[in-house]
Design brief:
It is globular, with a radius of gyration of 20 Å. A hairpin with a 2-residue loop joins strand 9 and strand 10. It is mostly beta strands and 231 residues long. The longest helix is centred in the first third of the chain and has 15 residues. It is built from three helices and 13 strands, in the order H-H-E-E-E-E-H-E-E-E-E-E-E-E-E-E. The N and C termini lie far apart (47 Å). Strands 1, 2, 3, 4, 5, 6, 7, 8, 9, 10, 11, 12 and 13 form a 13-stranded mixed sheet that branches.
């Protein structure tokens, strides 16, 4: 009952804090909290999210998301940790742009004040991302990197992934499809309105930030590719 009674106050406080802590304008429409949709877990749904960049990216929205939904372990809320179990993005439009000088519109964290007193040593986080599944439906992604002379556009993007992000070592299982893939590099168009279908299992070593390809297959139109190695 409390989230419903204090809904407006919660929303106002969250918006104020978010917009104060990043160099962008964040807004959203209707949102709801429910125990019935994924009982006994708690479901949160937020509609019409918009992250709009400030100078020098006026007029560019880093993200527009039709619906963001998340599933939270209800019983964990009664303890001292919050466990996020599932995330879903419906109709997300993501536009990443990097200018000639390397300035990127995704770098929206506020710069630290050099005159500010040193921050106290951080306590252990009380937030767990124990995701069993995350999904993207009907997404659209643009990556436009001017100094790299690279442009990537994915339309009709469908993506699912699962893995226990609370662990240092785990396997990330992913499936990705895109109805339209456009790739331009150094002025040359390599892919135009291609279709892509990718399934991949990746061993995630988070302490060393090492990601190893396991079973995987990528199909671009009729060309089938495989990946081996690590990043």
């Amino acid at each position: 009952i409390l989230p419903i009674v204090f809904k407006d106050k919660i929303e106002g406080a969250v918006k104020a804090e978010v917009n104060k802590s990043i160099n962008a304008e964040v807004d959203w429409g209707e949102w709801s909290i429910s125990l019935l949709r994924n009982f006994p877990n708690l479901s949160v749904e937020v509609n019409d999210i918009r992250v709009s960049n400030k100078a020098p990216f006026e007029g560019v929205d880093l993200a527009r998301i039709g619906t963001f939904s998340a599933t939270v372990d209800f019983w964990a809320l009664l303890g001292d940790r919050i466990t996020l179990k599932r995330i879903a993005l419906d109709r997300p439009y993501i536009h990443v742009k990097v200018l000639e000088d390397g300035t990127a519109n995704y770098d929206i964290a506020m710069p630290e004040d050099p005159d500010a007193p040193p921050a106290p040593e951080e306590e252990e986080s009380t937030f767990d991302i124990g995701i069993t599944e995350y999904t993207i439906t009907n997404g659209h992604l643009i990556y436009d990197d001017v100094p790299l002379t690279f442009y990537l556009e994915l339309g009709g993007l469908q993506h699912t992934g699962s893995g226990d992000f609370t662990q240092d070592l785990f396997t990330l299982r992913t499936s990705t499809q895109a109805d339209t893939v456009n790739v331009i590099f150094d002025g040359i168009g390599y892919l135009k309105k291609a279709k892509a279908d990718i399934t991949a299992e990746i061993d995630m070593d988070l302490p060393n930030m090492k990601f190893t390809f396991k079973e995987n297959e990528a199909t671009v139109n009729q060309l089938v590719l495989g990946f081996d190695g690590w990043l």
